[in-house]
Amino acid sequence: MPEMTTNTCVLLKEIESVFPFVEMPDENELVFHENGCFECDGLKNDLEDYRNKAITGKAIRLVHQELSSLSAKGWQWVLPHYLRFCLTPEAEYNRMETEFLIYSLRPSPEFEQETLLRLSLLDKEQINCLIHFLSWCENQQHWKDYCLEDIGRAQKFLSSIK
Predict the structure, then answer these.
(1) Which residues pair with 31 in a beta bridge?
(2) Is residue 17 part of a domain?
(3) Number of domains composing the chain
(4) Minimal CA–CA distance to 78: which of 99, 100, 59, 94?
(5) Fewer CB in a 10 Å sphere around the end CB: N or C, the chain?
(6) Which residues lie below 8 Å from residue 9, measured CB to CB, with a gap of 6+?
C-alpha cells in the first residue's frame, strides 16, 4: 500500500494545484475517434452514467483500459480524478489503473502523434506533474520492480513535449 509519505503528500498537493477538476465534456468531445468506433461509442455510453456525479474508483476502473479512446478534452477531464486515485490505497489493491496510465504515457513510435493529440490541452505545469507522478512511481518498490523501463520511456516522452 502506498504510504502517505512526504513524497506522496507533496505529489498530491501538486496534483491538486495543477489539475483542477473540470466538467465532463459533451459526449461527442469526450472520445478520440468519431462516431462508428466501437470502443469509443461503448466508452461514451458507459461514462454517461457518471455525468455530473462523483468520479469513483469504479469509474476509473471503467476507463483505465480505454485511455486511448479519450480525446484531449476527455484526458483533461479524467486526469485530475485518475491521478488522485492512483495515490490511494484502493489503487494499490488492483494496480491495473496505475499500470495502464504508465503505459498510456509511453506510446510506441506509431502512436506518438495520437498521444500528443490526447495530451495537447495540458499545460507545461501539468506535463511536469505527470513527470513527477512517474518519478513517484519509480520510487515505489512495486513499480520499480515491475515496469521501470516503461516509466523511463514515459518520462522521456513527456520530457520531449514540455
Answers:
(1) 70
(2) no
(3) 1
(4) 59
(5) N
(6) none
